[in-house]
Amino acid sequence: MGSVSMPLFPLNSVLCPKGRIPLQLFEHRYIDMLSSCLKTGQGFVLVLLQDGKDTDTHVRFYATGTSVFIQDFNQLPNGMLGITVEAIEKVAVTSVSQNDTGLHSGTVTVLAEEPYQTLPSGFDDLVSLLQRLMAYPAVSELNMDVDWQDARHIGWRLTELLPVSKHDKQRLLELDDPIVRLQQIDELLDLLGS
């Protein structure tokens, strides 16, 4: 696939391929985006904010994000529109523009898929940690499939769920070697524990 234009959704979270996240939409620009995505069958791109809040009109965000598709949507008790999205693949975003409603869009190019790597021995602690995190009700409700033999899956889910800085999460997302990602997660956990 070449470059395509897609709407951008700046967020204070990182989502890796095969991950899911619930979002609440209340701003007109994002409700219009959702309506357009549902009509055309096109997804959008989640990008991590470098600074600012996701409700700000003028924000800076990273140029690597993930394309997502809308998996489910419903009206929430608070009157907002709730959607659950699932990440498809990592993308690079260039040529960003903003329309008069404040919605960003950009030229998006799909990045090469990370190679499958069987989880090597030595990462049992990370697997146990991820199993505990996946048992939390808010995570469990997302019904994410995890291939426990795939080093990519283990690293992606830990990247999303661990309490590390969003900049560390972005750095982990941008890596293209699943084993290096797991090693760096191990190092971050050592820092958290010290």
How are the SSEs placed, and which strands pair?
Layout: E1 4-11, E2 20-25, H1 28-40, E3 44-51, E4 60-61, E5 64-75, E6 81-98, E7 104-110, H2 124-134, H3 137-140, H4 151-161, H5 166-174, H6 178-193
Parallel strand pairs: 1-3
Antiparallel strand pairs: 1-7, 2-6, 3-4, 3-5, 5-6, 6-7
Helix pairs in contact: 2-4, 4-6
* Secondary-structure element series: EEHEEEEEHHHHH
Fraction of residues in helices? 25-40%
Task: Report the count of strand segments.
Answer: 7
Instruction: Give the overall silhouette.
Output: globular
| Biggest sheet architecture | 5 strands, mixed, barrel
CATH architecture of the largest domain: Roll
CATH class of the largest domain: Mainly Beta
Stretches where pLDDT falls below 50 for ≥5 residues?
Answer: none
Calculate the mean pLDDT score and round it.
90
For the record, give the distance between the C-alpha atoms at the N and C termini, rounded to a whole number: 45 Å
Q: What's the multimeric state?
A: single chain
CATH superfamily of the largest domain: LON domain-like
CATH topology description of the largest domain: Archaeosine Trna-guanine Transglycosylase, Chain: A, domain 4
Strand content: 25-35%
Structural class: alpha+beta
Tell me the strand order in the biggest sheet.
1-3-5-6-7
Radius of gyration: 17 Å
User: How many domains comprise the coordinates?
Assistant: 2
What's the gist of this structure?
This protein is 33% helix and 31% strand.
Give a description of the structure.
The structure is a single chain. The protein is α+β, with helices and mostly antiparallel strands and 194 residues long. The chain folds into 2 domains: 4-110, Archaeosine Trna-guanine Transglycosylase, Chain: A, domain 4; 124-193, Orthogonal Bundle (LON domain-like fold). The chain contains 6 helices and 7 strands, in the order E-E-H-E-E-E-E-E-H-H-H-H-H. It has helices at 28-40, 124-134, 137-140, 151-161, 166-174, 178-193; strands at residues 4-11, 20-25, 44-51, 60-61, 64-75, 81-98, 104-110. A 5-stranded mixed β-barrel has the order 1-3-5-6-7. A hairpin with a 5-residue loop joins strand 6 (81-98) and strand 7 (104-110). Helix 2 packs across helix 4 and helix 4 (151-161) packs parallel to helix 6. It is globular, with a radius of gyration of 17 Å. The mean pLDDT is 90.
